[in-house]
Amino acid sequence: MASLTDLALGLFTLYLVPRLPRDVDGARYWRAAFVWAAITALVGAVYHGFLVDLPRIGGITWAVMSTMVVVVMSFMLAASVIQVLGRSRAVVFWPLRLLGVIAYLVFAATGNSSITAIMMCESITMACVIGLWVWAWLRGRPAGRPMLVAIGVSIAAAMLRLIPGAAALVALDPDSAYHIGQIVGMVLLYRAVAQSGPPPEAVDGTGSGRASGPDEPSPSPADGRHRPARWIPARWIKVPQVRRHGS
């Protein structure tokens, strides 16, 4: 069951990849996150179906899958930063991202790769992603609320695997319940990305991403631009004379 649900998660996520919008800022990072998530799930289907009883190979496969989850989180952070704050501020978050990746690689190299290790190492990354979209939601960005709902569903799905007995409430084993919850989370994430608004640089500006200054010409219906108004001397203006009756 765990293998089949992981396979469904991988195939469904792969189905969503070409349908992601290309006109949002950070689109390539969202696409990369979905691709890596799909590949991770497909590798997981092989692991649960054929390698789980092979301790040596299964342990290596699990470490590789866990590292791929960290890569997915990296792309999610990159897409969120670019979409919410703009490309010019993306560099601020990369040191935090690097710390999380290095910490998890240490866990994986020492044979301690697990969902708990991922949650520990990726807590800073997830906090950054949630904080960014809370900030976007409070400022009225279209994708803010849907993105927070999608992230919340994914976290709830992870809890089905981490909390003992939680998966029994839905009559499934922890792995299968987690995979099905992630399918719902990926659908909601896809819809949130599809509802994303324009890049932050273009919200208050023109198509080039900057606002028109006071010295810049404004568009006109004729050719898209018109020259600034010039002062015309009063003596150049001819006012028609009105003739009175009887004069």
TrEMBL record:
Keywords: Membrane, Transmembrane, Transmembrane helix
Spans traversing the lipid bilayer: 29-51, 57-79, 91-109, 115-136, 148-170
UniProt-recorded name of the protein: DUF6962 family protein
Organism: Pseudonocardia benzenivorans
Chain segments carrying region Disordered: 199-231
InterPro entries found in the cross-reference section: DUF6962
Superkingdom field: Bacteria
Position of the signal peptide: none
Keyword S-adenosyl-L-methionine: no
